[in-house]
C-alpha cells in the first residue's frame, strides 16, 4: 500500500504541503480533491521522486519513494500520468505508448504483451495506433496518456486531472477507462477538480486545502458532506 506520513514540501521558504497523511490500499481508487494551488501536483511530483520533501515519509509497500530518483519509483511500481497529458504530438500513438515502457526496455516480449493489454483496455486506440497522437481528440489523447503510464506496468497509478478540458460525455468515458484499469488490478490515486465525476468511481477520498488534508472519508461520506457539496459539487 501507499503510506504517506507527515509529508511536508517546501519551495524555498514557501511551504506547499504541511504534514500530509494519507494511504491508498491495494485495489483502491482514492480521490484527492482540491482547488487550483491546493498542492495536488506537488504531492504527485513528490510521490514520483521529482520533488524532495522537507519532512515526512512516503512509501509504496515499504519502499521509500522520496529518494529523488523517478526511474527508481517507476521500476518499483509507481507511475504518474501527468496533468496536461504531455504526449509527443508528432509521434504515433504506438510510439508514445512504447515510450512508457522505458524502464522495461530490455524486455521486448513483455512490452509487446503489455501493448496488447492496453489496446484491449482502450479499443479505440487500436485503429489510431499509427496516427500522430496530436491528431486525436482530447479524450482520446487522455486515453493515450493513461495507456502510456500503464506500459510501465505500475501497481499504483498517480493520475493528475484526467478530466481537464474535456466535455462531460468524454469525462464519463475517461473515468470508465480508469475504472477498467482499476479492475485490472491497478491501485489509483486520482487528483481531480471534477469532484462529481471522481467521486463516482472512487472508494475513498481526501480534500486538500492550502497544502493540508482538511477532510477525508468514504465516497458516500464525501458526497454527503456539506463542505464538499458547496465547495466542489456546486450544490
Ligand atoms: P493545480 O491544479 O493548479 O496544478 P495544485 O493543487 O496541483 O494546483 P500545486 O501545483 O501543487 O497545486 O501548487 C501548490 C502551491 O505551491 C501553490 O501555491 C503554487 O503556487 C506553489 N508552487 C508550485 N510549484 C512551485 C514552484 N516550483 N516554486 C514555488 N512555488 C510553487
TrEMBL record:
Keywords: Amino-acid transport, ATP-binding, Nucleotide-binding, Transport
Domain ABC transporter intervals: 2-235
GO biological process assignments: L-amino acid transport
One Gene Ontology MF term: branched-chain amino acid transmembrane transporter activity
Keyword Cytoplasm (UniProt): no
Transmembrane segments: none
Matching CDD domains: ABC_TM1139_LivF_branched
Keyword flag Nucleotide-binding: yes
Family listed: Belongs to the ABC transporter superfamily.
PANTHER family assigned to the protein according to its UniProt record, in alphabetical order: HIGH-AFFINITY BRANCHED-CHAIN AMINO ACID TRANSPORT ATP-BINDING PROTEIN LIVF
Protein name as annotated: ABC transporter
Taxonomic lineage: Bacteria, Thermotogati, Deinococcota, Deinococci, Deinococcales
Amino acid at each position: 500500500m501507499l503510506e504517506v506520513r507527515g509529508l511536508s514540501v517546501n519551495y524555498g521558504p514557501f511551504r506547499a504541503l504541511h504534514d500530509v497523511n494519507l494511504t491508498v490500499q491495494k485495489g483502491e481508487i482514492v480521490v484527492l480533491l482540491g482547488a487550483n494551488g491546493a498542492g495536488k501536483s506537488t504531492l504527485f511530483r513528490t510521490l514520483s521522486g521529482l520533488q524532495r520533501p522537507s519532512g515526512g515519509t512516503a512509501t509504496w509497500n515499504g519502499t521509500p519513494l522520496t529518494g529523488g530518483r523517478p526511474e527508481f519509483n517507476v521500476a518499483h511500481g509507481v507511475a504518474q500520468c501527468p496533468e496536461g497529458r504531455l504526449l509527443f504530438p508528432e509521434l504515433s500513438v504506438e510510439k508514445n505508448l512504447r515510450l512508457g515502457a522505458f524502464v522495461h526496455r530490455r524486455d521486448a516480449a513483455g512490452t509487446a504483451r503489455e501493448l496488447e493489454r492496453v489496446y484491449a483496455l482502450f479499443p479505440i486506440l487500436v485503429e489510431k495506433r499509427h496516427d500522430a497522437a496530436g491528431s486525436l481528440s482530447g479524450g482520446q489523447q487522455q486515453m493515450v496518456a493513461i495507456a502510456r503510464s500503464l506500459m510501465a506496468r505500475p501497481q499504483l497509478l498517480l493520475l493528475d486531472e484526467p478530466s481537464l478540458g474535456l466535455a462531460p460525455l468524454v469525462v464519463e468515458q475517461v473515468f470508465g477507462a480508469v475504472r477498467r484499469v482499476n479492475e485490472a488490478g491497478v491501485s489509483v490515486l486520482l487528483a481531480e477538480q471534477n469532484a462529481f465525476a471522481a467521486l463516482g468511481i472512487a472508494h475513498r477520498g481526501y480534500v486538500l486545502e492550502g497544502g493540508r488534508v482538511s477532510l477525508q472519508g468514504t465516497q458516500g461520506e464525501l458526497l454527503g458532506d456539506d463542505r464538499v457539496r458547496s465547495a466542489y459539487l456546486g450544490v
